[in-house]
Design a protein that fits this description.
Layout: H1 2-22, H2 27-50, H3 56-83, H4 85-101, E1 112-115, E2 122-126, H5 133-142, H6 152-167, E3 172-177, H7 179-187, E4 191-195, H8 205-212, E5 227-232
Parallel strand pairs: 2-3
Antiparallel strand pairs: 1-2, 3-5, 4-5
Amino acid sequence: MEDLEENQTKKRRLAEGLFKATHYRSYHSYRRSLKIGKSFLVIGIIFALTSLIPILLLQTLALNIAVICLTVYLLTDYWVASKSQMMKKESEQVITSIFEYANLNEKINGWNLFTGIYGSDSLELTFTNEKSFLGDVLRLIRGEESTLPLNENNIEAIKYFLERQNEQQGFIVYATMTEMMAENFTRRGIVVKQIENKYRSLPSRWDYAVATGRLANALWGYPRDFGAYILRYSKEKGNFEK
């Protein structure tokens, strides 16, 4: 009996290990992996520039390090993108269901739902889509339609989802937003409550620029007031504590 239980424990640990290796448990961990990958890109660029210094030994060393860092970045970026596919697909399926249940005939436009890290039962709502630097630049050049601020139907879908969570005492839903975004939700009747910044998932400058449709927001227009906010909605708000 003990051998059977030990074998089951090993199989369970193996299954959990495989899941962790091929899936992200939260959007926060996904963003952390992206940041690690980009650090190799930055280091690679620095050493590539250093290789321009006309000292042969320094040039050779710097160039080799740059090649290694850029190779690691490309491999990491490919792995992170592959590993996040299931997470993004599940988000799309959930949001499609929300629109169907809410009887809203609208294309998903600029928001996602992922497993959160604010307690054991939380979901993180995000407003940007992660693309490569080149992908973001091409989208800005093509002038793709901006997704922020959210249009009315998408706001209504979020309201519907938040209200269901409130009625069922379900998931806590939170998001990283600017003060202006938080005020926009408040005007639409959604109660927001700011929480610690350690729960923030800051969007990249270029992803944010694409979402807002403004190139300047990737440069000097990137907001400095991003904060993490819990979102709640009910037609009867008396049961909320701000």
